[in-house]
Amino acid sequence: MLIDQVTNAGAMPSLEMTMRFAAQRQNLIAHNIANIETPDFRPLDASPRGFQKMLSEAVDARRSSTGGAHGRLNWRETAELKRAPDGGLSLRPTTSSRNILFHDRNNRDLERLMQDLAENTQVFRTASELMRTQVNQLQRAISERV
Amino acid sequence: MYGSLDISVSGMIAQRTRAAVIANNLANTDTILNAAGEYDPYLRREIMFAPGDPAAADPSQRALGVHIQAIEANPDALRAKYDPTNPFADAGGYVQVPDIDPLTEQVNMLAATRAYEANVAAAEATKTILAQSLRLLA
Amino acid sequence: MADPVGLIGGAGPLGPGPRLTPAQKPGDLRGGPSFKDVLMENLNQVNKLSDDATRAIEDLQTGKRDDVEGVILATQKADNAFRMLQAVRNKVVQAYEEVKQMR
Q1: Closest partner residue to A141 among C5, C13, C46, by Cβ?
Q2: What is the ipTM of this complex?
Q3: Which of A128, B97, C75, C78 could connect to C49 by a Cys-Cys bridge, CB 3.0–4.6 Å?
Q4: What burial class does residue A90 get, using C-beta atoms within 10 Å of its C-beta: 0-12 exposed, 13-18 middle, 19+ buried?
């Protein structure tokens, strides 16, 4: 109970989810980029909107049950977001069907892919830096004389 | 950790190989003899990509990336050129020569270059994410 | 995360324990968990987190998992938990030393 509060304090659980989502999505984006010249290729993706919606529900539930400063994040599995053996997030990508089809039946937009790449990298870095500040704050709180 | 750059590197290799195929086509636009000196007009080579990377280190990662499925000679890539003085001309004075359009090949070369650069950017982004994870331990 | 260890207002586990109302006599509160039980439970949790982190690091080395960020997060949790336990231990030892001085 004491340790639980320390490991699930503040925004750390939600930042952890975001970091794991962005890191795994990076592989999908790299895969789509590697295949921009492959005919009949369907890009794989995991929807960031879907992830944020799921995370929003879990955060709201946590806030209403414990006040939001601590407590485990109970998140719901979806078609794309599954639970890994260690309890964390594991992506099961689905095939994206947006964009027009080119003559070789590969529906890709290089610009969108590069945008996804840059944005996803930025999301990861942001979550990681914020996690760092949360951890530092927690450690200062622990080590300071009461 | 090993194999985290496999996806992007497979893309780079695929595009670089494609560039080599295109360069080979351009170099052989006028080749009508084979290595033994016989009449055997050069057939345009075409490269086929397919998703997935059978060469990936980790079996679970083999569904991601790209690989070269085949490099095929197109048997229809010949056109008839009127040249009665050529020793290999047929009865009507036509010689079969490779049907390779430099403009098409160069446009394809540009696409391959662009795709190669995109894969390099993806590899850099993956490296950034790995480096960023490590900052948490600092 | 304004008050991660519940120091302000005794909101968290480090706050003052249950109070006696005027009607109760000393000894009526014995039903709750003892300090020793609380300590052992937290020790077990720290051990588990530490084991999880060790396993995560080993799985990363052996190739059973390839998510560096997941391993780092697990390591971090174990580290924070251990620091917390260490801080509690230091406080307890300090309190004991003070009591020992009261001769």
Answers
A1: C5
A2: 0.85
A3: C78
A4: middle
